[in-house]
Amino acid sequence: MLSTMQDGPLSLANLLRYAASVHADATVTTWTGATARRRTFGELGTRAAQLAHALRELGVGTSDRVATFMWNNTEHMEVYAAVPAMGAVLHALNIRLSPEQIVFTANHAEDRVVFVDGTLTSAFEEVLPRLRTVRHVIVVNGDAAGFRAPRGVEVHDYEPLLAARPGAYGFPVLDERSAAAMCYTSGTTGDPKGVVYSHRSLFLHAMHVTTPAAMGLTTGDTCLAIVPMFHINSWSLPFASMLSGASLLMPDRFLQPEPLLAMMEAERPTSAAAVPTIWTGLAARLAAHPQDISHLREVVVGGSAMPVTLMKTFEEQHRVKVVHGWGMTETSSVGTVAHPPARATGEDVWRYRMSQGRFAPLVEFRLKDDDGALVPHDGKSLGELEVRGPWITGSYYSPGDEPVEAGSFDDGWLRTGDVGRISPDGYLTLVDRAKDVIKSGGEWISSIDMENDVMAHPAVAEAAVFGVPDERWDERPCVAVVLRDGEADSVDAAVLREHLAGNWAKWQLPERWAFVAEIPKTSVGKFDKKVLRRQYAERRLAFVRLG
Amino acid sequence: MLSTMQDGPLSLANLLRYAASVHADATVTTWTGATARRRTFGELGTRAAQLAHALRELGVGTSDRVATFMWNNTEHMEVYAAVPAMGAVLHALNIRLSPEQIVFTANHAEDRVVFVDGTLTSAFEEVLPRLRTVRHVIVVNGDAAGFRAPRGVEVHDYEPLLAARPGAYGFPVLDERSAAAMCYTSGTTGDPKGVVYSHRSLFLHAMHVTTPAAMGLTTGDTCLAIVPMFHINSWSLPFASMLSGASLLMPDRFLQPEPLLAMMEAERPTSAAAVPTIWTGLAARLAAHPQDISHLREVVVGGSAMPVTLMKTFEEQHRVKVVHGWGMTETSSVGTVAHPPARATGEDVWRYRMSQGRFAPLVEFRLKDDDGALVPHDGKSLGELEVRGPWITGSYYSPGDEPVEAGSFDDGWLRTGDVGRISPDGYLTLVDRAKDVIKSGGEWISSIDMENDVMAHPAVAEAAVFGVPDERWDERPCVAVVLRDGEADSVDAAVLREHLAGNWAKWQLPERWAFVAEIPKTSVGKFDKKVLRRQYAERRLAFVRLG
């Protein structure tokens, strides 16, 4: 039996029309260092239409990729509004990637047009000669005349391109499953991988972002989008603000604590989204230069966990509630948000708040062990997290015919590569990456939990825990320890093992302890356990063996 | 270009799984007159699975209609959870309809199974012999043995039917556009018309209900669902609570002010939804028996507008914010909700709050005049409201092949039959029904606005304004007036016309004034303008003519 409901698609063009009319007074504000420039959602509607006309004249058609190389600002929002609405595909290039990776992603996505901030033109000039498909560069708030482009690439100034064009555009009716935007994973191992979002997935995800289970955005809110628009579409804040009528506050390139706080003082945002590092910097600056930031009702952090002491600093000293979220490029960003359940009290609240959070209604979840068996959601058992749902990717983008699925998918579920536990009430706590978790005698040991415990010992400067092959147990934990200066005589492996015994079962305690001068690190400063495993395999890592 | 997103459906079975696990501790509480009975969403999951097994054993298959004849209570919620999840279609029969209309809707929907509350069995026994397709009656909290059923109808008790069945069910994966539930319009003219909701439409609508633009429901909320589950699915509160983890409070048959207030005192709901009449009764009771009801953060009223004085009484005396909403069976309920924009201050806030509200993001809207031309959204021009979107019906249900569209649809848009104006910021103000608005010289005059103004004169007891044919202007307003006792000498038509002159343009002022003993009314107490028009046409209505 069919329903009698209408069959219109979820559509970002409709969303733009809605925002530009019903929420015409909401604003997109960009900080310029000392002051702000501001446009309304009404103007956003007009300018997005003008931009669509301009792009069509440049030959941009359905499904063509239109890239940005930009900070978070008002014009970036205009590109966000226009490109998916006209049926093209928005690709916000990650300006933080290495030139090689920028070249790889732009060529892989086959970007035809790139919008470049005037303050980023020299970085972009450097990579442009290696971009094979780019035909047009549009310089935003800069000077196209001074831009050095290879032959075959036309360079335009943004404002003259829009000027005098009609303020309305006949946006097409699209299949809601058609591509609207794409992002690439940061690719710490191997090439970045492309994820292509649909109108449907972005709409549903943005709707969730506006609910109280996520950010609870509404008209009258001003949302400070620090998370970059090239980082999973700024966690969908551009679309969530259009849905809810919340105004957007954009920091452009002013991401240091001092200008961020000057902007907050002037613009008084009510909510914000950023990675924890930003807040570490803000806390330090606030300690020296007190400022009331309690206009921030709530702040969502993701990308990594924020230390509980820092969360408490913001809550107790600044009256700002910091909320954990977890997600990845492959999950359109929000998978979980750590609002505690209403019944939680006292320290229990903090236990919930330090988790990665509660799953969204449209994110199905399960844990799997090494044999592919389901792991119970008992708040204790560890497994690799797999997720499924309408805003979860089912493959990676390939310019050829075949989608790239290798190893990342399990019967329609996304394998996240994250290991954790899930409580009976749907809260996720991640403890390790799947490649780092130690699988010993059929049980899993979190390398991160264990190294954090070792590092809690006062004599220890740094410690990395990694798995090494073991005939009887398959794998056993091995600990590489850097002692603090002058502590070499005060502790040995037995002391550190005893230190662990309070928190770990006997069978989990590591036998192998390597005292080293430093822990090898990756380019982004993380422990490089691959190097440690190789040193161990090649017998280049001296260790003590206990028990 | 296709997205790489997964292609799973929006599914009420997934929603049930989510609620029963992640929000297992949320509750459905039913008032029993002096105390409450309570089950958790975890138990809801188990019992819905048991119910699905039972229904399958009774022969219920995909798309079969399963009806209810019940108050709002925990077991009704179990039927809501089980029936759509198993692929059958929920039809909550409106127990307030006349026996003839109940018979019509149950036969038209071809209901096979009906759940009946023990307190409603005698009313249902009366209609059952005329129900052609019902094969099973399931008595909830009553006595099946005492139920008089015609031959061919099996009668069961609810609890024994569930007992000892498995607590898990393999709910099928369904097309999200397949039927999940149906409701009938109340059909003040002609037969009730059926609207069939899909999994998609109910899911999207419920998601919207949880956003701050509507009710902002979240875990920790307790939502008092006074609006009946047979009235547009209780405005989707059963599904919105499963999405958000808000607990539900159900009044069962205790809808009088005294037990409602006793229930509120015991259960302290944080939000509520009901028609205005309920709140009129509560206000009267509260005046005589003061009680703190400020645990109610916000209350949504719909079905008709609440008088501003009553809204202010709740806000100022009881610290309860009452919010208008507008919708109809054909719009899954919520089309607009009257939260004022954040920038509004002072009396402007009340102007927004007394409107029908701001349109939801997924509800496209337009106004049309008599010639089918678009009317501007300038906050002044009147037109018939048309809406479009994924939770708006595109036809009416027909058991045959052809959907019923006659006159109610305009090129894919639903004609609401409501006349109003829309402000540039997307707020709807309804002024009349399309059949009652007076079309004079190409302009529209709201009969309701005008009769309210006439009734504002102290000498007037009641007044109805209706359109009568006019050679020059097509239509002109005619006023039927009932004067208060003893006022016949103090006012005449000229005085009342002069009274209108302050608010109306000269061309709008009515010439024809009929002084009558009473205004004819429909069975539900509304002015019957059809009768007045007929009396006028048949020259049975004596009137004075001015100007």
From TrEMBL, chains A, B:
Residues 18-397 form the AMP-dependent synthetase/ligase domain. Its EC number is 6.2.1.-. Residues 450-526 form the AMP-binding enzyme C-terminal domain. Keywords: Ligase. Belongs to the ATP-dependent AMP-binding enzyme family. PANTHER family: LONG-CHAIN-FATTY-ACID--COA LIGASE, MEDIUM-CHAIN-FATTY-ACID--COA LIGASE. This is Fatty-acyl-CoA synthase.
